[in-house]
Amino acid sequence: MTQEQQLRIDLAAVFRLVSKMDMHESVANHLSAAVSQDGKQFLMNRRWMHFDNVTASNLQQLDSTDDSVMSTSEAPDISAWAIHGNVHRNFPKARVILHLHPTYATALSTLKDPRILPLDNNTARFYNRIAYDKNYGGIATTEQEGARIAQTFDGKDALMMGNHGVTVVGETVAKAFETMYYLEKACKTMVLAYSTGQPLNVLSDEIAEKTAASWDDFDGAAQAHFEQLKAMLDKTDPDYRD
Q1: What does each C-alpha distance from 201 to 87, 198, 230 come to in angstroms?
Q2: Which of 17, 100, 172, 199 lies 20 to 30 Å from 179 when distance is taken between CA atoms?
Q3: How far apart are CA 125 and CA 155, in angstroms?
Q4: Residues 21-66: tens digit of each pLDDT
């Protein structure tokens, strides 16, 4: 199996997993993965296709430096092109980009203070490791807005997009998926903690940083988690590999 074929299979698996976890939204939201060394050529879901219908073979290959596709019948969603095209073009580290509007992350993004505070292991995972964009300018349909979003990452792997949702990037599909998985769990903890109306017991900066750094010791867990989830998919939804 070629490296690209494996990448297609892994990315297709994430679409199914995101749908099963109810983190998808109609035929919107997009996931992409770079196929070229410079990151400028990438795979992404086609315009307005439900995540459950995405397969390895129907992922579309695009070139972030060539916008001529936007004037053809094969044009991807305009907001997906603005965000993913710009991030892949300007942020080579972002081999994989997952942009979603999950329930709890989106709810937190609408607060005046959308920060993920270090309250436990999962929330502390993002201590000083997530960027915040509080300059929502409407649905991202322009190159200017896409470029602004790309710059807002500030080298981090996760971006809380105020009044919008979240985007994560990663070196591999497994790592990006794991970041999104824990990001939604962290946001759920925040929303539920806020809902009690009780004062939050925020960890000290020292403990928060120590906890965040400790996650590096579990680096291999992302791949292990992803492989086991794919094995489960193979029993129920094997056509994602087609």
Answers
A1: 36, 9, 37
A2: 199
A3: 16
A4: 999 999 999 999 999 999 999 999 999 999 999 999 999 999 999 9
